[in-house]
Design brief:
2 copies of one chain form a homodimer.
Chain A lengths: L1 E5 L2 E5 L6 H21 L1 H7 L4 E2 H9 L4 E4 L15 E6 L2 E6 L5 E7 L4 E2 L1 H6 L5 E4 L3 E6 L1 H10 L1 H27 L2 H18 L3 E2 L2 E3 L4 H8 L3 H13 L3 E4 L2 E4 L2 H8 L4 H4 L7
Antiparallel strand pairs in A: 1-2, 1-3, 4-10, 5-8, 5-10, 6-7, 6-9, 11-12, 12-14, 13-14
Helix pairs in contact in A: 1-2, 5-6, 7-9, 7-10, 8-9
Chain A binds a DNA duplex (30 and 30 nucleotides) through α9.
GO molecular function, one term (chains A, B): DNA binding
Pfam family, one (chains A, B): cNMP_binding
Organism (chains A, B): Roseovarius aestuarii
DNA sequence: CGCCAACTTGAACTTAGTCAAATGTCGTGG
DNA sequence: CCACGACATTTGACTAAGTTCAAGTTGGCG
């Protein structure tokens, strides 16, 4: 009995005859397992949205989610310069990775939402070049370097899928860099809010209408390279122009299309189909 | 007969007795091969500076350098949005990867110098999210996705070394992002010139005294998120302050230590020892 | 020689930062 | 219940950094 999810469509096949009732029973058992895996893990959900994962691969992925730990908001999970070998898969809550300068100012490099890896690069460099802070209380699965490499060796397709997700993250960092270098404050904010919405939509936490967002204006300032004061002004302007409203922990897109036009937002780099479905 | 280069020191050993003259002959043969490989390939040189590579791994690395091609300055090697599966190893010359915005402005994400990979991420995403432009005439070895994966499968240590180099590149992009978000124009320029110097020193093309640099002030402007006019002013100021001189395709550090202090340059993220020498 | 690209400089302008102060909100302890 | 502090948000007035526009200068090369 074989089973796979292909671009959202379940496919199953068998090479020998079976009674219909037995076939049905098996399929339903597998479906239940899959549903379980996908519902329990935003990472699985994210990867499944792009890449065909077999039952076996899903099982390996699930095994990576053992060793679950909780962390409280605000206390650094990893600190810049710390030598640490573990990565994490974020299961619930938001985090951000940032670097602090000697003069005290900080730059947020990226936000992580459920399904994202934390500190994958640190594992390879054997040293964290940045800090990671939980923005709210979070749940994360610790992944030891050895387990990850083991999983890669046993399921190369999964390895490719994870590397693909890492590449996608890197593409987002590049887009962020472009924003800091070549977009003014309004465009930067618009682009940021749109990108975050697109990412959240992938794990079922947002839509074109808006999304819940626990970030403070200080987080936005540190991410966008602006002062908190200016962030506030920009948000006011966007709100008054009926483009987007950021208020009380919630982002509401008042006019998605005009916002996309302002930000010159092109979600191509997020939308791409994965590398496995050839 | 075994042989390795370990942090710049050659090591050889054998498990059976051999006549001294024969041993000597073998060692000199191997040395010649290695010298050849290292001189011919800046990538080999870069990796060897951090990671112990065996004779076999060096041979595999050399094989990746077949299929050498030339490209003229200014004509895009890869274009944004292009679907392309090959990556390149830059053998000679300088290139830059950049993104252009719909409004025509461009942001240079990174410069590549000999020994760097071009478009490694594009291979995984099956699509280039940026363009690559040779700054001068360049020589690059085309690496097909298949060859790369084959080499990875046969020599996992080499795979780790290359992934490590890729992580290091990503760390540089992050540092660049921090610069755009949280450093003013002077610091940004100082930091950039220092980082470039450190990278070039790794492949023997620069020192604490300075280095040859084919970039124009427009390149600097596009990389640092400044206008070309302002780049000119910043360069003048740094020159007048006797910190660094950028002129006639040559960067000269007039006062390395004060420049490091101004830029708050911390080369930790470039200096790190590789992942294999545990 | 004349052209072109890179570089240089000045002046006016715009964006975003800094400083300062007021408002709002939430949870804690009296 | 209210007072209080901690923190996030909001607004205004002023300032500094960097852009834009415009007009040269320089140097290499056909």
């Amino acid at each position: 009995m074989n089973f796979a999810i292909l671009a959202g469509i379940a496919v199953c096949w068998t090479d020998r005859k079976q009674s219909p009732s037995r076939l049905l029973r098996e399929v339903s058992k597998i479906l239940e397992k899959l549903l379980n895996a996908i519902q329990n893990s935003p990472l699985t959900r994210k990867l499944s949205a792009f890449v065909a994962l077999s039952e076996n691969e899903l099982a390996v992925l699930e095994r990576l989610h053992k060793r679950r730990r909780s962390f409280v908001a605000g206390r650094d999970l990893v600190h810049q310069g710390q030598s640490k070998q573990a990565a994490y898969i974020l299961a619930a809550g938001w985090a951000c990775s940032y670097k602090t300068q000697p003069d005290g100012s900080r730059q947020i490099v990226d936000f992580q939402i459920p399904g994202d890896f934390l500190g994958l690069r640190s594992v390879l460099l054997h040293m964290s070049d940045h800090s990671i802070e939980p923005i709210v209380d979070i749940q994360a699965a610790e992944v030891l370097a050895g387990d990850l490499l083991g999983a890669f060796a046993r399921t190369p397709r999964l390895a490719t899928a994870i590397l693909w997700a890492a590449s996608r993250d890197e593409a987002m960092v590049v887009e962020h860099l472009v924003g800091l270098g070549r977009r003014d404050a309004d465009e930067r904010m618009a682009h940021f809010l749109l990108e975050l919405g697109a990412r959240l939509a992938l794990v079922g936490m947002g839509s074109k209408g808006g999304y819940a967002c626990p970030l403070t204006q200080y987080h936005l300032a540190d991410a966008l390279g602006l002062s908190a004061v200016h962030v506030n002004r920009v948000l006011r302007k966007l709100r008054e122009d009926k483009l987007v409203t950021f208020r009380d922990g919630h982002v509401t897109f008042d006019n998605y299309d005009r916002l996309v036009a302002l930000a010159q937002f092109d979600p191509t780099y997020l939308d791409h189909i994965g590398p496995i479905l050839k």
